[in-house]
């Protein structure tokens, strides 16, 4: 039985975690992602990431549970998943030619020790000037309805951008691997250690 659990049903997050070559199990952790009144973006992603991990705590004693959540910030507004094609198109039209910040919350819950660490990473993207046709074509092809910011960095979404700015491009996909490696090492599970296979 692996010691590491990913509290997510996202295949993109699983593909990222696969890169660390640590055995793990995964389980979807569906929660209400609605921001609380007046909640700061950083506080929101911290709360959601930790809540996802905590949701699985009773099922996985003596494990390390990873939770992660992401929001987009634009013009002072917190934007989550679009949910439908019309909202995705409208969001991308707003982003066209602008810089957008993404905040990704990361939590590591140690159910054996009864402790956790929570942090977040930021990543900025600059969108190209996009035509209405490009936006419509992109949304129809990729259907990014369950992705913060209405795009998927893992696929055709790369064609939407002019440039990226940040420390870890995995942050944009939804699982900051550099910071996760740090948290895992601190919890006694070194991805480069001899006992992770």
What does this structure look like?
The chain is α/β, with parallel strands linked by helices. It has helices at residues 11-18, 41-55, 85-95, 132-142, 170-173, 177-186; strands spanning 4-6, 24-26, 64-74, 77-79, 99-110, 115-127, 161-166. Strands 1, 2, 3, 4, 5, 6 and 7 form a 7-stranded mixed beta sheet that branches. Helix 3 (85-95) packs across helix 4 (132-142). The mean pLDDT is 93.
User: Overall 3D geometry?
Assistant: elongated
Largest sheet: 7 strands, mixed
Total helices: the number is 6
Point out poorly predicted stretches. Answer: none
Beta-strand residue fraction: 25-35%
Mean pLDDT: 93
Q: What series of H and E elements makes up the topology?
A: EHEHEEHEEHEHH
- State the total count of DSSP E strands: 7
Percent of residues in helices: 25-40%
